[in-house]
Structure prediction request, 356 residues.
Amino acid sequence: MHRRSLLAAPLLLLTPRLAFPQGAAAETPSATAPPAGAPDDAQAQAAPADALAPILDRAASLPSLHAVRVAHDGRTIAARGYHGHAADGAGNIKSASKSVISALIGIAIEKGVLEGPDQKIAPLLEADLPADPDPRLKEITIGNLLSMQAGLGRTSGPNYGRWISSRNWVRAALAEPFDDEPGGAMLYSTGSTHLLSAILTRQAKRPTLALARDWLGGVEGFSIASWARDPQGIYFGGNDMAMRPSSLVAFGELYRNRGRAPDGRQVIPARWIAESWQPRTRSRFTGDDYGYGWFGRDIAGSPAHYGWGYGGQMIYVIPERALTIAMLSATDQPAGRSGYRDELHALAAGIAAALG
Prediction:
């Protein structure tokens, strides 16, 4: 059977456990399977994990999938590694890191480092503006960068290699010709989120990684394993950040709980999370809504918010189902054109449906 059909049909997702295909790599068992004689709460926790077992078994049919981790009602109920990969090994989350940049912007606004999403970026990046700047550069706001509505030509897709080959990524992004007006159509561009990293670095007078470790690092389970930098030493806003699935889940849980950490601290302002999830534009590639660093779509009949990185690096937050899902994949093939992204959406939908 074609691998997509194994995941796309909800009824198939709920069928009894399937045996591993011959030659498939053994999977890491569910992280929460309790031993015999475990306390009642552990036994209750095992019920949803058991419901996921056949779905996660069948996910082995996806050759690019490296790991899946699921948290339900605040507890990790399943963690799997696939095709020889550890269940909680660090991986490059690619553009899923744009959701992390958005969180840092929200915290910076709360701390007074930045004024708000309507703040104009030209005064903050004045030293890197072109010698004869397009007047529209003065109209771009922080919110425009977050929602991919800056209007500047894209530095992603076919333009990505040229952009990261430049000697100064900030100047190159600001020098792109305008393809639309600021606040216009969504033009997905990693240059936009890299400008946000540069703004954070300059306004806070600290590297973006140091800010992330200070502002988010105290959240239980959250950490950034590594992060690439540009030729000027600015951490790559919106790409090449390494995290573990458990760290991605901890980050997603922070959003699911409206910015509140497990210890009760308000880490991200609740109003910022609401603003980030508010649809502001729509992707012409997927038709999904986009807010401030988060996509939005229905999954298993429920509103879901997700970060998506090249190759299939995913963080899903489905608040009304008390569900957070992280997925890591290979980074050598695009997930959109191949249909793999849709298979991951189907896997997330199957997980949500199985948990009820």
